[in-house]
Amino acid sequence: MIESSRPQGAHAVNRVVDQLLGHQLGHPLLVAVDGVPGAGQAVVARALVAAIEGRGRVAVHLSSDGSPEFVETVVHQPGAPSDAVVVVDGAFLQREPLAEVWDEVVFVDAEQHDPYLDEHPAQRATIVVGAGPVLRRIGGTGSATVQLFSYGTLRLPQVQVAHFGRELDGTPDTLPAHRADWVTITDPAVIADSGTDRHPIVRPSTDPSDSVPGTLLTLTTTDLAAADTYEVPAYHRVPVDLGSGTRAWTYLAVNPATPS
Length: 260
Hints:
Blueprint: E1 2-3, H1 8-21, E2 29-34, H2 41-54, E3 59-63, H3 69-75, E4 85-89, E5 104-108, H4 121-124, E6 127-130, E7 134-138, E8 145-150, H5 157-164, E9 170-176, E10 178-185, H6 188-194, E11 198-204, E12 211-220, H7 221-230, E13 235-241, E14 247-253
Parallel strand pairs: 1-10, 2-4, 2-5, 3-4, 5-6
Antiparallel strand pairs: 6-7, 8-12, 9-12, 10-11, 13-14
Helix pairs in contact: 1-2
């Protein structure tokens, strides 16, 4: 299997969708695409909806009109399946009465001045994207940390320094009922950072005795965005249960079948 370079905008959108589809809430996921007026929220929302539908999930796209009645429109989606994703674009979506509605908030940072920015909406958002879009932060608010299980090149000191700005301490762990394979990378930046074009890639296994060793890392949400950007589109990020019992994110093969 060969993985080549990717358009950064589409890659960022797909990483946001990885984050959104990692939820299992038992009710439709409510996602705000927030920002100051004119930041491009509707463009980002449409891209997210298309990517979600491309993975076979139901997505509903709404645009906020700022009225109190709109809350009822967002929360109550008659006929929508429990795993649907409701994506709402608009401005000031982290203000009342909508502030407590959202399961995830994507903030579109247009780097333009507006009094709304004095309320620190980017810091309170769980995902931040810039123009392109480019991924700046993902996985929680600005102060949050996330658990990531790595079995491959994200454990290399030179990759960690290049993408996180420091070496990370980790804890050995395993991913049960999965098996490792290899993928050939052609992205020049990834090859340069890792020093190799041959990277491990993991898929679920039907053999319960299979297990993949690796390292559990604790990352900031800025670190996770850097990891998401580094990993090529052959991988998608999903939540898994590790041998230690820890629930963590990891990158698995998009294609669950072993390439011939």
